[in-house]
Amino acid sequence: MPAFWAAARAQLGEFRRDPGTLLMLVTAPFFAVILLSVTEHGGRPDLAPYALLAPAVMTSIGMAVMEAGETIFRDRSTGVLEALLTTPAPLAAVLSGRIAAITAVSLLGIAECWLVGALGFGIVVAVEHPLVFAATLLATAAGTAATGVVMAAVFVIGRNVRSFQNSLTFPLYLLGGAMVPVALLPAGFEAASRLFFLSWATDLLRDSLAPGPVAAFGPRLAAVLGLAAATFAAGFWIAHRLVRRVRRTGTVGFA
Amino acid sequence: MNAIAVLRQTMWSGWTDLRIVYTPTTWAFGWMVRVLCQVVFYSMLGTLLGDPERTRYLLVGAAVFIAVNETMMASASTTWERMSGTLSLLAAAPAGMVTVLAARSWFWVATGTLSSSIALLALAPVFGLGLGPGESAAAAALVFATALANYPVGLCCGSLSLRFHRLRNVFSNLTLLTMTAVGGVMVPVAFWPGWIQWFAAAFPAVHGLEAVRLAIGGGAADAVFARLGLAFATAAAWLALAAASLWWFQRDARRTGSIDFGD
Amino acid sequence: MAPGPGRGDAEAMSITGFDAPAVDVRGRSRDFATARGGPPRRALDDFGLTVAAGEVHGLLGPNGAGKTTLCKILSTVLLPTAGTARVHGLDVVADAKRVRPLLGIVFGGERGLYARMTAAQNLRFWAALYGHRRREGRRRAAELLERVGLGPRADEPVETFSRGMKQRLHLARGLVGDPRVLVLDEPTVGMDPVSAHEFRGLVEDLRAEGRAVLLTTHDMAEAEALCDRVSFIDGGRLLRCEDPRVLGELLSRHERVRASGVPEALAERIAALPGVERVRSTGPGAVLVETGRGGAALPVLRTLVEAGVSDVSTAPPTLEEVYLHLIGERGMAVRP
């Protein structure tokens, strides 16, 4: 546990030192303006919650992909990662700490987007089912952090994987149903997207903002949590393999 | 100075930079996948609204702006001269650094045109936009013109990135998103208040995109060329601004000592 | 089109006087603003220096002494806060455009080359920036690559080169504009001994061609071997400008002897030998003997060996120690 908090604090310090790492939080309001202008111009004020929720979700998952991968990559290139592996703290604790901090900071995007709606367009989105919203948000944060762990682990293991980092955001937005529910995707894509926790999470978050009753809340939340847990497990398994490889080869150098 | 020789050599060095950014594999399976997903993401907004006309509008806007997106990467690549440690050597060379910095990122115009045209032509049938061979060719040519016209905007961001290196991605992203929001990409410019419309008109890409929309919408040739004229006129102003800003960076760096040997 | 910028500016130089020294620095100082509005840090302080054409002038000093600042000012990358610097009579501030073609810059390390381009492509790029046309650029690139021994590797990307090869390419790059003055800023840093030796041979050739070379280094042996004159600088000030033989003399005068397994009584005997300045204990039975006179190390060695001590080595003094002696002799304090 001390390792977890120390890693989280280190990550927060990194945000302070290098404001460029907070790029996603800077771009979130712009995405809110872009998406909200589309629904407003289309004469569909009922879709405003979609347009304000989407950039917040995109910010969270985007930061998990970009920042989580980046921090661990930086640790490796500066040799910090090797030093880290010599300490008694499990790598999983350090990874989780860093990524928890990233995810927590990324949730600020929700407030930003809500403010864009209220101040820029005079649209105040009410949360109709606060408990559903809060529970789903927590589960979503867990899933996002899990995605971050997988990304970080994969970026460290693979030499060329990092070139794909920048390319992952929009495919994940699409498969996660960030703006458009995955039910509107072609059948094959929809099936694939159901393996990604975010597609369940965004549907549930949108439902929690709508006045109608939320159908099958329990099973759907369970789907989010179950997939998030599976993602965590995958991330830690890869991280564990990385540690074993380092112990064997004596270096965290490129594959 | 023999500007032509400098340009030719700079373009070659830029080309070798491109090979650091992409291998054929990462371009095809990384970047192009993202490009297609991005354009589908925005086009699907039309599906969500249940309006095929709007879907096509969003498709064209999102696809053409891929070219704009890539040329904005000139912002980051302008600073790569620091990465190779050649900035101080350029500062000390008789030809100076302005020409080299201005021309080194040209490859984004080429790759931007390519990925943007592929996205537009490949996704048009998917979202019910019929494009004949003539319209397709005109669209690709105008996408190139748009990328070219937007390049100086990327350079202006690049000159800022040279000064504030850690914010190099921030400048280009904010400029790109501003253009995307108000430039007639997702919703017509007329949606916004008058002062924002004037502001949007300052960006060459906004006129370039309008030219593409006119050309594939069966608009008159002179209307297309008028838009193109506006795109290049605004681009010329941005180019002057970029050159002044780069020159100013070079002069200022000498005074403050912000360029080190090895930078 | 003028054949090469070096010659193209000959006319300009004749106006200001071709006989002017290659490099002439007077009362040059440079302040840097420090963070949080503190008093400015002075990297160069009232600095004066002259280098004649065909002279290899060494600029010797520890890290942070102000060597690189001077090089940056001369190569027109940095403006001075006060004073003047001239290259062949041309002011580096007022006439920067005419100074640039006269200068070649080479700095140590692996940076400053385009890694993905081949050696020949790199040189052609810089040839264009120094005003050469295409054909001339190709010719110069090929010629220089031969000269630095990279001819067979001309068409290979620089990223595949060893450090020594990159450094040779750097030198070729510095020569591409046919400069009258070469500024070499710690060019042999990190070079292996063989490469460094070859590099020195190239510098000798440059002198023979009548080019002025300003070489910064903190390697005293290199300065002694290469330079016609050596300037010692520290804290941005010129301490002394000397014949390099003075340096050689300093090096041998302050030679040090290291030994282990030395009983206390033996150490005391050594301390009493003529020319021995100090005997320091560096561990149980280990001593470091500092001498202050040429040849004083020899009796120390003899005494040690005769007493049966076999783990003995000698070493030249470090730059810092030579500086301490230099400063001590002039009573000048080094500023922090």
TrEMBL record, chain B:
<feature type="transmembrane region" description="Helical">
    <location>
        <begin position="174"/>
        <end position="192"/>
    </location>
</feature>
<feature type="transmembrane region" description="Helical">
    <location>
        <begin position="137"/>
        <end position="162"/>
    </location>
</feature>
<keyword id="KW-0812">Transmembrane</keyword>
<feature type="transmembrane region" description="Helical">
    <location>
        <begin position="20"/>
        <end position="45"/>
    </location>
</feature>
<feature type="domain" description="ABC-2 type transporter transmembrane">
    <location>
        <begin position="27"/>
        <end position="214"/>
    </location>
</feature>
<feature type="transmembrane region" description="Helical">
    <location>
        <begin position="109"/>
        <end position="131"/>
    </location>
</feature>
<protein>
    <submittedName>
        <fullName>ABC transporter permease</fullName>
    </submittedName>
</protein>
<dbReference type="InterPro" id="IPR051784">
    <property type="entry name" value="Nod_factor_ABC_transporter"/>
</dbReference>
<keyword id="KW-1133">Transmembrane helix</keyword>
<dbReference type="GO" id="GO:0140359">
    <property type="term" value="F:ABC-type transporter activity"/>
</dbReference>
<dbReference type="GO" id="GO:0016020">
    <property type="term" value="C:membrane"/>
</dbReference>
<keyword id="KW-0472">Membrane</keyword>
<dbReference type="Pfam" id="PF01061">
    <property type="entry name" value="ABC2_membrane"/>
</dbReference>
<feature type="transmembrane region" description="Helical">
    <location>
        <begin position="228"/>
        <end position="249"/>
    </location>
</feature>
<dbReference type="InterPro" id="IPR013525">
    <property type="entry name" value="ABC2_TM"/>
</dbReference>
<feature type="transmembrane region" description="Helical">
    <location>
        <begin position="57"/>
        <end position="77"/>
    </location>
</feature>
